[in-house]
Design goal:
By secondary structure, this protein is α/β, with parallel strands linked by helices. The chain folds into 2 domains: 263 residues, Rossmann fold (3-Layer(aba) Sandwich), CATH 3.40.50; 58 residues. It is 28% helix and 13% strand. The chain is built from 11 helices and 11 strands. The chain has an 8-stranded mixed β-sheet with strand order 1-2-4-3-5-6-10-11, with helices on both faces. The chain has a 3-stranded antiparallel β-sheet with strand order 7-9-8. It is globular, with a radius of gyration of 20 Å. It starts with 65 loop residues before the first strand and ends in a 9-residue tail after the last helix.
Length: 389
């Protein structure tokens, strides 16, 4: 971990036109959460607890990328912060060196341009950590909100009622950004997270009050197709993991079991990043437990397979620019009819003052941000260049 990043709990895996000149009005995300009164932070040193919830720490004035992970209601000097509302998702806020904003500060200060990055099924906010820090270095006026979706990572401890679906997951994220009092200008979602960002914009008030750019990475708006021979399939992976004990004695044993079942080495090594020690670190017989709710995730994946957002894509609200990115080697997720339908939506959107665009990331499979991070960075960069210092 770079010394340029402030202390936080450990993390691991996972053009379009610029905004028109002039100040544009805000999209009112605040309708998704009740106002929360938070006192001003008086010290940037926070004691980090196991569950990552809530507002940003005070940023020191330096020229480095800062990772703001705020989840502890007590400051280092003993000052109490307001109790946090129940159900807020775990998150990290990666801020560029020119960002001096905090959600606990004077709300008359405008929030900086913000991008939200969402992971896929069985992932976590850690998937985006390295990539987000690279974006923050290149675009120092921006901040990047990385979220653990419901049933995943540190949000698995946040109890949820009702159906675990694409729509309910989108509502969770809308409530988080409302709680933080930020107005995202860019939404980026990978796989399941891609459908979530589509649903977020679909649920938000229309017409949108200002331009917003949405990136759907290697996911189609409609029904998900089954995997081909030799390809790891999330439904099969979820089913296998549900047969494993809640506690395991070795990550290596889990990797071996996954390989014997026919899953790839890359997927096996990625899955065990969701294991954490369940006992004291000093214990010689320490076991590992999973950092997700597999029952809830199974529901979420079923919703991902069945959720159909083509109607939204083919009737994009004014001021919304949708970008679909297909990984070159991601074969089963895309059909010719999907590509044709997206290209048809491009023509319709351009006539209505909105936008739809299709991109292909060469030399990449489904894990676009690890298979070809340089190519992905080049494709996404125009979304942030209008605010580059």
């Amino acid at each position: 971990m770079s010394s340029a990043i402030s202390s936080f709990t450990p993390c691991g895996r996972g053009g379009i036109s610029t905004t028109p000149a002039g100040r544009s009005p805000r999209l009112d995300w605040r309708a998704y959460a009740s106002p929360i009164s938070l006192p001003a932070a008086q010290n940037e040193a926070f004691r980090i607890s196991r569950l990552s919830l809530c507002s940003s720490s005070r940023m020191v004035k330096d020229r480095t990328v800062r990772m703001a992970l705020v989840d502890e209601p007590r400051l280092a000097r003993g000052t109490r912060m307001a109790e946090q509302p129940p159900g807020v998702l775990a998150y990290e806020l990666v801020q560029g060196p020119l960002v001096e904003w905090s959600s606990s500060r004077d709300k008359s200060v405008a929030d900086p341009p913000t991008a939200v990055l969402l992971h896929g099924i069985l992932g976590s906010r850690k998937n985006w950590g390295t990539f987000a820090r690279r974006l923050a270095q290149e675009f120092p006026m921006w901040q990047f909100l990385l979220v653990d979706l419901r049933c995943h990572g540190d949000s698995a401890s946040v109890k949820r009622r009702g159906v675990h679906s694409v729509a309910s997951t989108a509502s969770d994220v809308l409530k988080l950004v409302a709680h933080l009092r930020i107005t995202p200008r860019v939404l980026i979602g990978h796989s399941f997270g891609g459908k979530v960002v589509l649903s977020m914009v679909d649920q938000a008030a229309k017409p949108l009050a200002r331009p917003i750019r949405v990136w759907v990475l290697d996911a189609t708006p409609g029904k998900v197709r089954a995997g081909g021979d030799g390809e790891d399939h999330p439904a099969e992976l979820i089913s296998f993991l549900r047969r494993l004990p809640e506690e395991v004695t070795s990550k290596r044993e889990v990797i071996s079991a996954l390989l014997r079942e026919g899953f790839s080495k890359d997927v096996a090594q990625w899955v065990v990043t969701n294991l954490r020690p369940s006992g004291p670190p000093s214990s010689p017989s320490s076991k590992f437990s999973w950092m997700f709710d597999l029952e809830g995730i199974s529901e979420m994946y079923h919703s991902y397979e069945e959720t159909n957002l083509w109607k939204f894509v083919e009737n994009v609200p004014r001021g919304v620019h949708l970008n679909f990115l297909k990984a070159e080697r991601s074969l089963h997720r895309w059909a010719l009819e999907d590509l044709q339908r997206i290209h048809a939506a491009e023509d319709i959107a351009s006539e209505e003052g909105s936008g739809v665009e299709m991109h292909v990331l060469e030399d990449a499979g489904h894990w676009v941000h690890t298979d070809n991070p340089d190519g992905l960075f080049r494709i996404l960069s125009p979304s942030f260049q209008g605010f580059k210092s």
